[in-house]
Structure formats: structure tokens, C-alpha cells
Please model this.
Amino acid sequence: MYRRRNYLINKKMQIKYAVRIGVVLILMFAIAQIYTYYSIHTILPGLYSQRMASDLAAIQQKLFIGSIVYILFIAVFSIFVSHKIAGPVYKMEKIIREVLTSGDFSKKIWLRKGDELTGLAQVLNELFEKIKKGETQKEQ
Model:
């Protein structure tokens, strides 16, 4: 069975994808932190004591650290997920370039099990086959 060795096939696209997910998560966690802080200081002002303030600050700090760890985990995970798209796109580009330079339409695009864009690969293979048949008929 073939194992992936390089998860960054299209570094620019995959890192851009991971950064976008990371930014969305940072905004989400920032909003959650602000909402938590605002809620604590507006809902509990009468119950607020010095001891409670230090406990709440510790809770917010733990939430913040957990958020950072979660954001990093999701950003790294998004690179693995994006590989299922970037890998097939890279492979299709490579085969199409080979077909264009060589004129050999007998090449096929084979993707790994679980990769995305298998439907597009099948359509391209059908296109190559039709072009190949059309060239064969012209030669006869």
C-alpha cells in the first residue's frame, strides 16, 4: 500500500488554507474571550470579590492557552486535510502537462483511495480517451 511521505505538495495553497482556518479560529476565540470577560463583569458585579477575580482570571488564562493549542492543532490538521485536494490537483496538472507536451492521450490519471476530485480525474480520463479516438479516426 502506498503511504504519503510529503504532505506539502502545493505549499502555497496549503499554507494559505491553514492560515485562513487559523485566522477564523483566532477571531472566534477572541470573540468568545471578549464575551466571557464582558459577561463576567456585567452579570456578576455584585458578587465580584477579590478572590473571585483571581479565580476568574485563572480560568480565562486557561481558556486562552487552550485556545492557542486548539488553533495550532487545527492549522496543522488543515494541512493534512488540504493534502487530499492539493495532491490530486498536482497530479492532474502534471499528467495534463505531460499530455500537452508529448501529445500522448493514452495517459491516465490515477488517484489514491480517499483523495478528493476523483470525479474530475474520471472526466479528464474520458476526455483523453475521446481525443485519442478522434486522432485515431483522423489517421484512418
The CA atoms of residues 108 and 125 lie 6 Å apart. The chain has a mean pLDDT of 81. The chain has one domain: 11-139.
